[in-house]
Design goal:
By secondary structure, this protein is of the alpha/beta class. The chain has a single domain (2-260), classed as P-loop containing nucleotide triphosphate hydrolases (Rossmann fold). It is built from 11 helices and 10 strands. The strands form 2 sheets. It has a 6-stranded mixed β-sheet with strand order 6-7-8-3-9-10, with helices on both faces. Strand 7 (172-176), helix 8 (184-201) and strand 8 form a beta-alpha-beta unit. The longest helix has 18 residues, at 184-201.
Length: 261
């Protein structure tokens, strides 16, 4: 479904060029849940933004291919990319409060995505927005569809963001540390919800995180990133039991120490 080849994305300043993504290649199969694991600054979020061509100056995609359903996204016009974002590939970000517009109800924001990509009228899109709030298990969706983002808790706002992201049943969902700002109990609920949706919709998920515990919970395969490169990839069991790269070994050792503590 997705094949990234030799992708390089850099950020430019007056005196320095920083390769945030350095010649990366990877694949995500249809319906597969792949974890992108790495510490802050490893380039994993830039990878997600690059796939959707959402890199802003001073950043720039320098080279490579991003093939999605046999089309190189880097060769498409911006109008063609608009038709793909939210419809074929969606992204859920770490902080839903900054991703949601505070002056519009959550129903209006979900319906906007539906109208843009599915061509439904206002009434039909509003009805579909209520259905999506129900899918992400928000109680009383008929009433809450008219609420504003500030009227929701952090966990509920993240559910709203997931509802927006899956409203058009995309083939691929990029989840960029969507549970980092949430407490452990709410984090577990969101992960359970994502697994349920993935199974029902059959979508592929690229889950970006620094938390190996989350990777173990939701992913079948993991790619380890360090300084803009993928240093190792394999199944969860392979990475835990027989890591080959020194950086991966240190990550696993830290995990074992924390688990023992």
């Amino acid at each position: 479904m997705l094949e990234v080849k030799n992708l390089t994305t850099s950020y430019f300043t007056d005196d320095k060029t920083n390769k945030a993504i350095d010649n990366i290649s990877l694949t995500v199969k249809k319906g597969e849940v792949v974890g992108i694991l790495g510490e802050s600054g490893s380039g994993k979020s830039t990878l997600g933004l690059s796939i959707l061509r959402l890199i802003s100056p001073p950043g720039k995609i320098i080279s490579g291919e991003i093939n999605f359903e046999d089309r190189d996204l880097l060769k498409l016009s911006e109008n063609e990319m608009i038709k793909i974002r939210g419809a074929k590939i969606s992204m859920v970000f770490q902080d839903p409060f900054t991703s949601l517009n505070p002056v519009y109800t959550v129903g209006e924001q979900i319906a906007e995505v539906i109208r843009l990509h599915q061509g439904l009228g206002y009434r039909e899109a509003h009805k579909k927005a209520i259905e999506m709030l129900d899918v992400v298990q928000i109680n009383y969706p008929e009433a809450r569809v008219n609420d504003y983002p500030h009227q929701f808790s952090g966990g509920m706002r993240q559910r709203v963001m997931i509802a927006m992201a899956i409203a058009c049943k995309p083939e691929l969902l990029i989840a960029d540390e969507p549970t980092t700002a949430l407490d452990v109990t709410v984090q577990a609920e969101i992960l359970k919800l994502l697994k349920k949706i993935q199974q029902e919709y059959g979508m592929g998920i690229m889950y970006i995180t620094h938390n190996f515990g989350i990777i173990r919970e939701i992913c079948s395969r993991v790619l380890v990133m360090y300084k803009g490169k993928i240093v190792e990839e394999g199944s969860i069991d392979q990475i835990i039991n027989s890591p080959k790269d020194e950086y991966t070994k240190r990550l696993i050792d830290c995990l074992k120490v924390l688990k023992g503590a």
